[in-house]
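Incident log, support desk, overnight shift.

02:14 A customer reports that sequence design results differ from what the structure should imply. Their input is reproduced verbatim below. On-call engineer (initials T.W.) acknowledged and began investigating.
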């Protein structure tokens, strides 16, 4: 929203239009010619952070010391097909 548009809403009675950020949800309801009532306005700011974040699993699961799924250690077989160098 550019500054000209923000000024138009401000002139109509908006108190929040100047504080809106990118991707904020904003509702401004009014009616032309209404003199005795204030316009309705509501802002909802959305965070970019996940709402239900789950902690990452440990790199060394309990019961498997020295095992890290992303980097196989010596003595830990690679379960992917053809990992042993044999024919698939």
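02:41 Re-run completed on a clean worker. Output:
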């Amino acid at each position: 929203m550019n500054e000209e548009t923000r000024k138009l809403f401000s002139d109509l009675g908006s108190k929040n239009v100047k504080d809106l950020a990118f991707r904020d949800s904003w509702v401004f309801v009014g009616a032309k010619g209404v003199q005795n009532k204030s316009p309705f306005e509501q802002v909802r700011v959305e965070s970019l952070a996940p709402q239900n974040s789950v902690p990452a699993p440990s790199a060394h699961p309990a019961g498997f010391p020295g095992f890290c799924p992303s980097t196989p250690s010596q003595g830990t077989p690679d379960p992917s097909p053809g990992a042993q160098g044999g024919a698939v």
